[in-house]
Amino acid sequence: MIKILFLCHGNICRSPMAQFVLADKVNKLGRSADFEIESKALSNEEVGNGIHYGTKAIFKKYHIPYREHYASRFTKDDYEYYDHIILMDHFNRYLIDRFIPYDKDHKISMLLKRDIDDPWYSGNFEKTYRDIDEGCDKLLDRILDNEV
Predict the structure, then answer these.
(1) How many CA atoms within 13 Å lie on the side-chain side of 138?
(2) Is the pTM of this model over 0.90?
């Protein structure tokens, strides 16, 4: 089982978008049983809130299945549990360093080398989706290449 955790600031826009985009890609490959994919927040600001309506609109537009999801916060135990911890931007890196000052197992990485815009501020859910879709393709390729 490959366990992946996506992190962003509030866990209502980018990280759940990445969670369900990657889950859809894995499902289309017939590999759902091989992956556990989740998302969480690095702040308390949105804990308990559901997925942003802009992210839900992206799911509907691109026919990406999703389930109810409520924002929850990353903990130190998550570091031990997940194999891959994927960040959306460099500010996420700053925040996670407060929890995990030393990534001894080299689990933490960015989804892309560049920051993925937070659509909560930009309003551009389409651009965020394109970046996340690209990043999920690259992440999945990297993980599957390491299986060989």
Answers:
(1) 12
(2) yes
**What single-letter DSSP state applies at residue 88?**
S
pLDDT at 99 (0 to 100) = 84
Assigned token pair, 6: 């996506």
Alpha-helical segments (H) within 33-147? 53-61, 76-81, 90-99, 119-122, 125-147
Count of helices and strands (H, E) across the chain: 6, 4
- 25 contact partners, CB below 8 Å, separation of at least 6: 136, 137, 140
What domains appear along the chain, each with residue ranges and CATH number?
2-147 (3.40.50.2300)
- Both tokens of residue 57? 């609109």
Residue 146's pLDDT is: 81
Q: Are 47 and 73 in contact (CB under 8 A)?
A: yes
- Total residues belonging to the chain: 148
pLDDT tens-place string over residues 55-102: 999 999 999 999 999 999 999 999 999 999 999 999 999 999 988 888
Bridge partners of 130, per DSSP, are none
